[in-house]
Specification:
By secondary structure, the chain is of the alpha/beta class. About 40% of the residues lie in helices and about 15% in strands. The protein has 11 helices and 13 strands. It has a 7-stranded parallel sheet, sandwiched between helices. A two-stranded parallel sheet has the order 7-10. It has a two-stranded parallel ribbon with strand order 8-13. Helix 5 runs parallel beside helix 6 (about 160-180).
Length: about 325
Amino acid sequence: MAKYNPFDTTKRILITGAAGFIGFHLVKRLLGQGSTICGLDNLNDYYEVSLKESRLALLENFANFTFVKGNIADEVVVSHVFETFKPDIVVNLAAQAGVRYSIDNPKAYMESNMMGFFTMLEACRKYSVEHLLFASSSSVYGNQQKTPFATTDNVDHPISLYAATKKSNELMAYTYSHLYGIPATGLRFFTVYGPYGRPDMAYFKFTNKICQDTPIQIYNQGDMYRDFTYVDDIVTGIERMLCNPPKNNEWGDAYKVYNIGNNKPEKLMHFIEVLEEQLGKKAIKEFLPMQPGDVYQTYADVTELENDFDFRPVTSIEDGLSRFVAWYKEYYKINA
């Protein structure tokens, strides 16, 4: 049994990207336990802002939640939040997301994922936080053939700008940890899905199109594998890490990276079949070649997560998609 400190609800936690998909679920879980949370988000229009506002409306029902609208690349905003809220722990989930979007809109990734993360690191240095956790991504593994992907694998070959910014975040966080003694934990997420999810992701787009009787685009002729991870599992993993900053590693630095994935890659076509079953409706399928920046498969080795926190994701595709579809029908008022 792994020995780790349980989550301490007296810790003040700053969560960036609080109106985003993972951020919303994490904030909601911690608020429900009585934590004091400050959420920072710029509510950008990368996808429908109304969904972000709906998430935020649920969070603002909690008296112990403070929301600040602002950009993590804005040094004045970030400094003000650190100065007034005085967080013990920072979870940086704010980022410009999306692999394909990074091909056409590279500047957005440089501002948010590079300058934004730099601004957060500088604030953590200046205000001496106890623990910085930050979002990385399975995309850092590129198209490597070795499976499952382990955090010890070489990640020098990202195949999208998004992936390159996430690898850069890991390097920047390591450097700040080394130079300034900031305990930092990187979180490599693997294809997260669930209620209040991101409309730009494939499963959400598929659901929209199946309900609208329009064709779904299936890349690489459907021959792709993804380590789909249900959002509640992601949140449980993060929650267990919050009050457990890394111990000094072999170089004497308090820095570590974890995979958080399902450790069970599913073929894309099987995922679509389960989604069709939950919706009670067949998809109109359009098969296309692989897109630039896409990877053939993702597959997480979660041994370290299990060893350090006695945890691995447990939600099956069937259960997870059932919960997502139930939320989707209620949120968009679609009759079963």
